[in-house]
Amino acid sequence: MFPEYRDLITQLKTTDRHFLRLFDQHNELDQRIKNMEASISPATHEEIETLKKEKLSLKDQIYTVLKKAAAA
Fold first, then answer.
1. Which domain holds residue 48?
2. N or C: which terminus of the chain has fewer CB atoms within 10 Å of its end residue's CB?
3. How many domains does the chain have?
4. CA–CA distance, 60 with 58 (Å, rounded to integer)
5. Separation between Cα atoms, residue 49 and residue 7, nearest integer Å
6. 53 domain residue, yes or no
7. Which residues contact 22 (CB under 8 A, 6 or more apart)?
8. Is residue 52 part of a domain?
9. pLDDT category of residue 71 using cuts at 50, 70 and 90
């Protein structure tokens, strides 16, 4: 996710608690979705779609933080 911001992501994960929370939530959702799609965890199509929308929202929030930090 966002390879162009790799160094900034590493920095923000250690200095910005809000960013770290967003980043961890995104990764957790990503793993849950993968498990559901692989039928490791039971889920309906609607549940998976809801989680994907949540994950996309987190990704948008992460990108906003990255852009602001890069501009500072």
1. 17-71
2. C
3. 1
4. 5
5. 31
6. yes
7. 58, 61, 62, 65
8. yes
9. very high
**Segment 3-25, tens digit of pLDDT:** 999 999 999 999 999 999 999 99
Angle between helices 17-37 and 6-15 (to 10 degrees): 110
pLDDT value at residue 4: 96
DSSP three-state, residue 39: coil
Q: Is residue 4 part of a domain?
A: no
| In-domain check, residue 39 | yes
Average pLDDT value for residue range 28-54: 95
How far lies 23's CA from each of 27, 29, 40, in Å? Answer: 6, 10, 23
CA pair distance 8, 70, nearest whole angstrom: 8
Specify the residue for token string 């929370």: 21
Residue 7 Cα distances to 48, 60, 69, 70, angstroms: 31, 18, 12, 11
